[in-house]
Design brief:
This protein is of the alpha/beta class and 502 residues long. It has 16 helices and 24 strands. It has helices at 3-14, 56-76, 79-94, 97-108, 112-132, 168-181, 196-207, 222-231, 244-256, 279-291, 311-322, 343-358, 389-392, 408-416, 431-440, 473-479, and strands at residues 23-25, 28-30, 36-40, 47-52, 140-141, 148-155, 158-162, 185-189, 215-217, 235-241, 261-264, 270-273, 303-307, 362-365, 379-382, 399-405, 420-421, 423-427, 445-448, 463-464, 467-468, 481-488, 496-497, 500-501. The protein has a seven-stranded mixed sheet, with helices on both faces. A six-stranded mixed sheet has the order 9-8-7-10-11-21, with helices on both faces. Helix 3 runs antiparallel to helix 5 (112-132). The longest helix is centred in the first third of the chain and has 21 residues, at 56-76. It starts with a helix and ends with a strand.
Length: 502
């Protein structure tokens, strides 16, 4: 067994997991029944583990378990008690940062220093929603009929969540925490390429009081396990985080079953730099926007729109800066960029760079290469118009297209000339301009003189091909509950008129 495989096995053992990924159904680690799925180390390209797809039968069991546990969670204990269990989860996650981060680094290829931060953020998510568990109130509405009318927020029941391979444990916490805070049961299917940390997270949560079966994890494939869960009668809502292509299939399947969905999809976000900006600051922000996480982020600043007067200068700064970024082993504390997470995505990024070259791009990239692994070096594409495929299609790698613009109106037109509507940013010293850009650019999240700052307390989501719905902040509380309107007739005699209540 290689050293990396041994480290993976040791981390899994420390978290009470078996020797390979298993589903977690009703509190029990359960073997799948379907075809084998391979986990490949993106740094060495060796097969780490093999496990069986959950399959339709386990998807059914997971939905039934969540349905049974949800009733007691929503009605059998107080909202404050739910919040206390979630606070317990905060502590157990923080006590296991290292094994969770180690698994994430090996399986997903993310630098371990980033993984540690993301695990800590998962704890923060549970802490935030723990505080909301007993504060979700309805309202009294002064209706003109004289009735006492009030509303209350009720959990939906069982929610099915699908999370991606680029941030497995982060997106697991992002989805699970608001769902259970509001009294729901959960069936979650992480990407078949990165399932382990989601199982570990839920197993840890169960060890400190989360009821068995309230959250169930399906390790497996979308066409089998995922479709079966979407179709199950217990599931009341579907939440998907991933690519627009897969998101469309999920939305269609949910619509056929008359179930609402929240979709967090891709982006082609515009990072806009004006000539009055602090260029050094903007350059550092641009590096973080596209190169961190090897560019595998839905909000990546993949279109760098720069005022024509400083375009060449900023591109030169960005080109020099990317040569100082440390590429390497995700388990190395010094590594800043790891490999692309899987072979399919590596091929896509490579193909998109080749396509950009055919479209006439000048390609600035690092000359050094890695001897192994799915590495794509930081890359800048120049000489392309905003209408080219490289500027319009999501690359999801450390590749940025730098495009000059003439003035403010031109920048806005370029920024909005995309099928996406997820994020954007502006760098400028003009406060008025900053707010005008924030107002004019179509984006669910917009930064001024910064990039990529997100927090569980702030709403997150997009529009158009970036999806719909919001999955954090108080907006998520609304997504995971429905409003019930209650009417009390306080009149001495019932106010019943012919055919309607007066």
């Amino acid at each position: 067994m290689s050293d990396r495989k041994q480290k993976l096995q040791d981390a899994m053992a420390a978290l009470g997991l078996g020797s390979h990924p298993q589903c977690l159904i009703n509190g029990i680690l359960t073997e799948g029944t379907g075809a084998d799925v391979q986990l490949v180390d993106p740094f060495t390209e060796e097969v780490l583990l093999t496990y069986p797809d959950a399959g339709e039968a386990l998807a059914t069991k997971a939905c039934e378990a969540a349905q049974n546990a949800q009733v007691g969670w929503a009605k059998g204990i107080s909202a404050a008690a739910r919040g206390q269990v979630m606070q317990n989860i905060v502590g157990i996650v923080l006590a296991n940062v290292e094994p969770l981060a180690t698994i994430e680094a090996i399986v997903a290829g993310k630098p371990i220093r980033d993984c540690r931060i993301e695990v800590a953020k998962v704890a923060e998510m549970f802490a935030y929603y723990a505080g909301w568990a007993d504060k979700l109130h309805g309202e009294v509405i002064p209706v003109p009929s004289g009735h006492l009318n009030y509303t209350q927020r009720e959990p939906l029941g069982v929610v099915f969540q699908i999370t991606p391979w680029n941030a497995p444990i982060f997106t697991a916490g992002w989805q699970i925490a608001p769902a259970i805070a509001t009294g729901n049961g959960v069936v979650i299917k992480p990407s078949e390429l990165t399932p382990i940390t989601t199982v570990a997270l839920v197993k840890l949560a169960e060890s400190v009081g989360l009821p068995d079966g309230l959250v169930n994890v399906l390790c497996g494939l979308g066409p089998t396990s995922g479709q079966a869960a979407i179709a199950h009668a217990a599931v009341r809502k579907v939440v998907f985080v991933g690519s627009p292509e897969t998101g469309k299939r999920v939305a269609v399947a949910a619509a056929k079953a008359l179930k609402p969905a929240v979709l967090e999809l891709g982006g082609k976000s515009a990072n806009i730099v004006f000539d009055d900006a602090n260029l050094e600051h903007a350059c550092l922000g641009a590096q973080a926007a596209i190169f961190s996480g090897a560019g595998q982020s839905c909000v990546a600043g993949s279109r760098l729109l720069v005022h024509k007067s400083v375009h060449a200068e900023l591109v030169d700064m960005l080109s020099k800066g990317m040569n100082n970024i440390k590429l390497g082993d995700p388990l190395d504390d010094a590594t800043e960029i790891g490999p692309i997470s899987n072979a399919r995505q590596f091929a896509h990024v490579s193909d998109m760079v080749a396509l950009a070259k055919n479209e006439g791009a000048s390609i600035l990239t690092r000359s050094d290469t890695q001897d192994q692994g799915y590495f794509v070096p930081p890359t800048i594409l120049t000489g392309l118009s905003n209408g080219t495929k490289a500027a319009q299609q999501e690359i999801f790698g450390p590749v940025v297209t730098a495009i000059p613009f003439e003035d403010e109106s031109d920048a806005i037109e370029l920024a909005n000339a995309t099928d996406f509507g997820l994020a954007g940013a502006v760098w400028t010293a003009d406060v008025g301009r900053a707010h005008r850009m924030a107002d004019a650019v179509r984006a669910g999240t917009f930064w001024i003189n910064s990039y990529k700052a997100i927090h569980v307390s702030s709403p997150f989501g997009g529009s158009l091909s970036s999806g719909f719905g919001r999955s954090s902040g108080t907006d998520a509380l609304m997504e995971y509950t429905s409003a019930k309107s209650v009417w009390l007739d306080s009149a001495p005699k019932p106010r019943i008129a012919f055919g309607y209540v007066s």
